[in-house]
Structure formats: structure tokens, C-alpha cells
Amino acid sequence: xxxxxxxxxxxxxxxxxxxxxxxxxxxxxxxxxxxxxxxxxxxxxxxxxxxxxxxxxxxxxxxxxxxxxxxxxxxxxxxxxxxxxxxxxxxxxxxxxxxxxxxxxxxxxxxxxxxxxxxxxxxxxxxxxxxxxxxxxxxxxxxxxxxxxxxxxxxxxxxxxxxxxxxxxxxxxxxxxxxxxxxxxxxxxxxxxxxxxxxxxxxxxxxxxxxxxxxxxxxxxxxxxxxxxxxxxxxxxxxxxxxxxxxxxxxxxxxxxxxxxxxxxxxxxxxxxxxxxxxxxxxxxxxxxxxxxxxxxxxxxxxxxxxxxxxxxxxxxxxxxxxxxxxxxxxxxxxxxxxxxxxxxxxxxxxxxxxxxxxxxxxxxxxxxxxxxxxxxxxxxxxxxxxxxxxxxxxxxxxxxxxxxxxxxxxxxxxxxxxxxxxxxxxxxxxxxxxxxxxxxxxxxxxxxxxxxxxxxxxxxxxxxxxxxxxxxxxxxxxxxxxxxxxxxxxxxxxxxxxxxxxxxxxxxxxxxxxxxxxxxxxxxxxxxxxxxxxxxxxxxxxxxxxxxxxxxxxxxxxxxxxxxxxxxxxxxxxxxxxxxxxxxxxxxxxxxxxxxxxxxxxxxxxxxxxxxxxxxxxxxxxxxxxxxxxxxxxxxxxxxxxxxxxxxxxxxxxxxxxxxxxxxxxxx
Length: 669
What we know:
Elements: H1 23-35, H2 41-52, H3 73-117, E1 124-129, E2 133-135, E3 139-148, E4 154-162, E5 167-173, E6 177-179, E7 182-190, E8 195-204, E9 211-222, E10 230-242, E11 245-250, E12 254-256, E13 260-269, E14 275-284, E15 288-290, E16 307-313, E17 318-327, E18 334-345, E19 348-362, E20 366-372, E21 379-381, E22 386-395, E23 401-402, E24 405-411, E25 420-422, E26 426-428, E27 433-436, E28 446-447, E29 452-460, E30 478-486, E31 501-509, E32 513-520, E33 542-552, E34 557-565, E35 570-578, E36 582-586, E37 591-599, E38 610-618, E39 634-641, E40 646-649, H4 658-661
Parallel strand pairs: 2-10, 12-19, 21-31
Antiparallel strand pairs: 1-3, 3-8, 4-7, 4-9, 5-8, 6-7, 9-10, 11-13, 13-17, 14-16, 14-18, 15-17, 18-19, 20-22, 22-29, 23-28, 24-27, 24-30, 25-29, 26-27, 30-31, 32-33, 33-38, 34-37, 34-39, 35-38, 36-37, 39-40
């Protein structure tokens, strides 16, 4: 029975709209879907990829595409597109490679070209050769190498060598020119590839384990860059590993308070060359005092710097130095003394050895003390003073002291043995010592435990004229008095001499102020020209110059202050002249103040005095007719002696008047 097209069961009713696939094709697709699992996996993957691209692979046996596995034109276009892309990629890669090769070639050529025209730091050759270690004071050789490692010639080349601290130049090849701390060598032209060398020989000082740095620098200007200047520096370090000086001490470990102690030092040159300007410095602690005037003290000791200076210490030689000191304090206390030995070069000190020795105060059997003018402690005296001295002794031990002897020695400018006054005892001119024994002081025959005694004497200092007026050596004078007590019964430490107990006192000589004031009618030769009638007249002005003079007979003085007050009717004109210091004029109070920070010793004695010239004006009234006018009403001056640290008051001097200014022309008319 024929099937109507409108019949629902017709196969056409089950085809999707727009599907023009032939039944045979659909059958092939169904078959392929059923048996696709039997196809190779790579074929299945390819089929899925084509399906995503919208390309349908036709089944085998299709009449329209028989013998062709890919029927879609899209696939063929895709293949062509991919081929074109490969071609373009290959062309682009080739072009990029060519550009890269060209760029590398250009860069190499540029660097090569620049290297022929420019100078870099590494192309400036500079180096130093020398020892890594050295003994202080030994000779050494520095070799400085420099060179032009660039392709450009240089001009204005200069080599600068800066030696380390403590270096002394002996010679150099070629000759370098000293310029401050540096040694300079003007090289001038230096062609490309050229090299040079400088040798510097010298002697190097330093302290132990010090690192001495030598520095060399070369300055150049390339020919193709005249305005440019380049510098490169090299540094060499040398360690000071050994020292040429050796220092040994021979100092007692203990001493009684007030005991005179003798100590010595040995300074040895260990090197094979002589050493110059060797110094040995002593630094005693408070409570330890060096006896600088003791005859056993080695000569050449500088009290200001506290050191000896040896101009030359020969090779492998030893110098013995002796010093004397006393310690003071309580038993058991310690007094250290520092000792330094070194070499001085110019203004620099190179320490070679440093030692510290400690002296312990030990118990004493006897106490010896001195008093002057009835007082103990620091004593200040003046030239021409009469001095009363006393030596006090006391046995604080447990054993009596037989045949005791007391000795006293006075030293210093201003002391004259001929002015001694002794009640007992005697003066020995050979040893320049006063001594007392049991022959004149019976109490010294046996000094029992806890027994004490006093021995008196006196002397007169020389007048000022006997003191030196040298500005450098004539000031800061002292009289040194050393008293000691000796007895066979005093203990003697094992291996050491018997302890002789001593006491040392210092009498410092004070300066005296020099002061003068006067007035005069200046004719202009001193700079402040006076004017007005002489004698002065009522209601008319006459000007005078008041001159103040200050000085010091011996020592430096400081904090100098002079104050002068003028009376009513006298006024300052505002003109003054001072050789030193500052001047303040108070017009309303009629007060003058002159201050000077310091005046050197001997000023006014062997040096010109310091002066202040002040001009004043006088206009007498009728009440002063027939009278002499005073130019200064009050005057005072003070200064401090910088050696003895004592304030001195200047004694009042005669005050100037119009009559003293111009004798017989000072009465007001």
C-alpha cells in the first residue's frame, strides 16, 4: 500500500529541517558512529579536530566524493593558510637573524673604535712593590710601576708618591721632587703601551704593629681629550713588626715616705744603625716628686717636658740615665711612675717602649720634717728675706737610734752660705752641707723610741740684684732644702743600702711688682700733644698726659688690673695709648680701668715696662687759684704671680699733680 507523504510514519517526517544528507550518507554516518571505536586513535583525534573546525569528513563510498577522504574546501584553505604562515615565519626569522648579526657586528666595531679613542681606569697602570713587614728604623725600597695600557697617547703625566708617617727619604731614581708630604715626578709624554718605574729608598719609623700606608697616584691627560684629566691610585701596607729600642729599669719596689730614692734606666739601641733624637720621658704620679737639682740626676733632663733627649744613640750601644725621687703618703700606698722611650722625627713622636713601675710606701723608723718661718708646707719667699728654718725628727720605731747625724743641704740661686746663721752644727764647704751630730747636739747620741727633737738655723736670701735678669732663665727661682737623718741602727733591706730617711722642701721665690705713675706736659714727641697755658689759668683748659708703668721683677704675672679715679674738675679727653691690654674710660665716674692678661717676667727690669698714656684736661675754677691741682684722686693695682700663684697688691705710689707734671709751673694763676 503506497504511503502518503502526509502520513506521519513517513521517513521524511523524521529528517531535521535543512538536512539534505542523502540516505546513503546518513547510513554511512550511522555505521561510522557504530564502528568508530575500531578506528585508530590518531584518526579519531584528527576527526574531532576537523569537526571543531566545521569540516565534516565524508564516509567512504559516497558517490559525490568518491576516492577523496577530505571533501571540505575549508580544510584545503586551512592547509594553504598554514603553509603561507610557515613561509612568512621563515622569512621573518631570516630577516631578524640578519639584523641581529648586523647589530652584533656594529657593536663590536663600535667598542673597538671607542677603545682606540677613550681611556678607562683599568688602562691607567699603577702599582707599588715593597716589604710587607719591617723593623722600625730599617731601610726599605719602594718600586712604583706605571704604564699606558690604552691605545691613546698621553701628555701631562705626573707621578705622585705619598710615603707613610715616619718615612725619611734617602734617595730616589729618577729624582723625585719633595712637595709637602709628597714626592713628585713629572713624566710628561707617555705613548700608548709605554711603561715606567720609580724607586724610592728611605728609612721608616713606626710603632709596634702599626700599619704604614704608602700611596702612589698617576695623573694623565689623553691627547684626544685635552681638557680631561684622569687619576688612578695604588696603596701598599707595611706592618711594623719589630722595634729598635730596648728599655730596662732598676727602680726600688718600696720606699719610706720622704726617703730619697735613686733609680736608673738603660736605653739600648738594638739596630745596626745609629738612632737620632731618642727621647726618654718620666711621668711620676702625684705623691712622687723628682729631685731635679740632685747632683746624681743625669744631666740634660728637661723639667718642662719631663724628658731626656739623646741627640744620637750609636748602634748596639746602651745609655744609662739616673734620676732621684721622693715619695710621700701613708704606709701601703702605691705611687706609679710611667716611663716612655721613643724616637722623635720632626714634630712627631714614635713610641718604642712603655713601662710602668709601682713604688709602695713602706713603714719608716724615723720621721723627718722641715718648717720655715714656723710653718710647714709650701713656702714663698722674696729676695732679701731672712728665713728661719727648723729640722724636726722623731723615732717612731721600737729600737733606739745611736750616733744619729742630721744633714741639711740648701741649693738654688739666692742662697749664699756666707749668710748662714748656725747656733750649733757646722757647714762643710766640700759637700755644701750643714751637719749636726752628738758633738753639738747631745740629743742625737741616742734617739729613743717615740723621742723627738728640733734643730734650728737661719739664713738670709740675696737681694734682687743678685738674681739673674735673663728673661728666659732668670724667673721661677727656687731654694731646695733637703734634710736627712742617718744612724747605724736604721734597717737595711736585703741586698740594698741602709735606708736614710730624708725630707725635701721647696722655697719658691716670689716676684715683686714694678709700678710707677707720673704726669707731664707732652710736647708731641710721645703722640698725645698737650695744649693750654702753663701754669694753668682759671677758666682756661690745660691738658696733661698721665703715664702708668707696670712690670715684674722676676716671674710672669697675670690678671693685671689697674684702677685710677680722677678728681672733680679733671676730665678725660678720650685720647690714650696702651702698649698692651684693654682700657676702659668711664667719663661720668671719672674712672679708668686698665687690664692686661699677662706680663712676661723681667718686664720693667731687663725689658721695657708696659705703659698706658692717658690725656686729661684741667679747667681750674676761682676756688683753685693759687693751688696745685691733683690729677689722680685714687689709684690701685693688683696682679697674680703665675709661678707661686699668689695675688700681689701694688703699693700706693705718690699721685701726680700739675706741679709734678711741670715743676714750678703747676700753681693755678
